[in-house]
Amino acid sequence: MTVTSTRGNGMAFPEDLRDWQHELRVQFPIITAHPELAYLDSAATAQKPQAVLDAVHTYLTTSNANAGRGTYTWANRTTELVERTRDRVKEFLSDPAPERSGVHFTSGTTEGLRTIARDWLTSYLTDGDEIVVPVADHEANIAPWLETQRLLAAQGTHVRVLRMPYQAGSHDYDHVALAQLAGPRTRFVAATHVHHVYGGNMNVHRIRQAVGPDAVICLDAAQSVGHLPVSTADLDVDFVVFSGHKALALPGTGAVWARQARGPALAPGGWNGTPNTTGIVSLGTALDWLQAAGIDRIERWTTALAARLTDGLRHLDPYEILGCELSLAAGSPVQQRQGIVTFRHRDIASGDLGFILFSHGFMVRSDNHCQGSAGEKTGSVRVSLHVYNTPEEIDRLVAVLASLR
Ligand SMILES: Cc1ncc(COP(=O)(O)O)c(C=O)c1O
């Protein structure tokens, strides 16, 4: 039986997950070492559980070598660990045909998207093709595509950029408008799974129907991998790009998953040099850890914390919450916030609010969050959550915010 407690707006808090969460929280040394602080910036980068730290230590003290080169034990072991992580990424993304997909390791989502633009998209597009760019999403998912357009134009290949349409109220993509916009020359669509400012799930599974079977869909999953199930089969996308460091792995980690059914494969780009073996080991372990913890539970926990914060904030007059206002009452997946809540104070600039909150022990992100030019025009404060955060932290934060009236 699911035990829940309800708050003012009827949202239920998953009380049945309290013990589960406590057992996981204590596995994060940096969190338990600082009970006076609350880390609320996991959308920027996440903290690391002991298992990840141990895996890195074990690797460096037992088998550190280069991958894919030597024939001695340490080198073989390193190669094996890299290949195992590749398989792990495919499995984690519910890849229905792992023998026909590839995984390329990067330093994060930005490098992953750039790699696709530079190493694949430039040779895939031809004169007169169209690409859809999500102009109100993260800059990392806009700049590479515009750069590709410029690069190709300089070589005489003219590609049209179509601006991804958004729904005014929910900030979800407008899939109906997208279907009208997309035509036979629309060959590439860039999209984001979870919006890094509004926290909404962008209902990416509807894109395929809107753009047809042949367009390549590239998904920025920076804010979804490690937070909710990301299934390449269900979403019917061709590229999934994510940051390992936001999914509990070491800084400087990320991956591109590429389905090779449409167009040329994302070639490894020839000689890539020495891979970030330590980071890759940490990524494999982080994915194991997340899987064992249960992605569904992590999603329930972080969305419930986001709902608790939104619920607390919506009654405080000086605050404006960005994103869908109706979200909590309706409770539909579009309108849930996936562990990200962004807001403004009417009279306090977001940078100042960030400083004030830190003086109370809360680490949040302030200002414009690298949103593209079609995004918010004034700064805001973003609270982003992971499995180590607690309802008590949220309640303390709401109390401090209430005192700033
Ligand atoms: C949606 C989204 N895309 C891309 C990025 C960039 O990720 P990274 O810093 O790992 O390159 C972020 C992180 O801030 C993000 O939230």
Return the structural class: alpha/beta
**Alpha-carbon distance between the termini?**
40 Å
Ligand species? pyridoxal-5'-phosphate
Q: Residue-averaged pLDDT, rounded?
A: 92
Second CATH tier, the architecture of the largest domain = 3-Layer(aba) Sandwich
Spatial sequence of strands, sheet with the most strands: 4-10-9-8-7-5-6
How would you characterize the largest beta sheet?
7 strands, mixed
The succession of helices and strands, N to C, reads EEHHEHHEHEHEHEHEHEEHHEHEHEEEH
The CATH class of the largest domain is identified as: Alpha Beta
Fourth CATH level, the homologous superfamily of the largest domain = Type I PLP-dependent aspartate aminotransferase-like (Major domain)
Low-confidence stretches: 1-10, 327-334
Kindly provide the radius of gyration, computed on alpha-carbon positions and rounded to a whole number of angstroms. Answer: 21 Å
List the keywords.
single chain, 405 residues, alpha/beta, Aspartate Aminotransferase, domain 1, Aspartate Aminotransferase, domain 2, 2 domains, seven-stranded mixed β-sheet, four-stranded antiparallel β-sheet, 15 strands, 16% strand, disordered N terminus, binds pyridoxal-5'-phosphate
